[in-house]
Amino acid sequence: MSTSTSPELAAPNPLKAGDSFPDGVKFSYIPYTPEKEAITSCGVPQQFNASQEFANKKVVLFAVPGMSLLSG
């Protein structure tokens, strides 16, 4: 069995301690609100501009292997 990753989904070079956060990195998230706590409700995705929010700050990033929606 072989797997391939399309170029648009390929991971960028990993960051190391002391590296600057790259430009143009944005995430989507759905903020929690009490009105949307039922599993059958969903909020509207919001954009989080990580490059702008993390600029000139010390940030700790971590990932949980296997938690990607693209794995399968």
Summarize the structure.
This protein is 7% helix and 11% strand. By secondary structure, the chain is largely without helices or strands.
Walk me through this protein's architecture:
The chain has 72 residues and is mostly loops. The chain is 7% helix and 11% strand. Strands 1-2 form a two-stranded antiparallel ribbon. The radius of gyration is 16 Å and the shape is elongated. The two termini are 13 Å apart. The N terminus is likely disordered.
What best-fitting shape do the alpha-carbon axes yield?
elongated
Structural class: little secondary structure
List unreliable stretches of 5+ residues. Answer: 1-7
In N-to-C order, the SSE pattern is EEH
Major sheet characteristics: 2 strands, antiparallel
The percentage of residues in β strands lies in 5-15%
Mean pLDDT: 74
Count of DSSP strands: 2
Strand order of the largest sheet: 1-2
Helix content: under 10%
C-alpha termini separation: 13 Å
Give the helix tally. 1
Radius of gyration: 16 Å
Which keywords apply here?
two-stranded antiparallel sheet; 2 strands; little secondary structure; about 70 residues; single chain
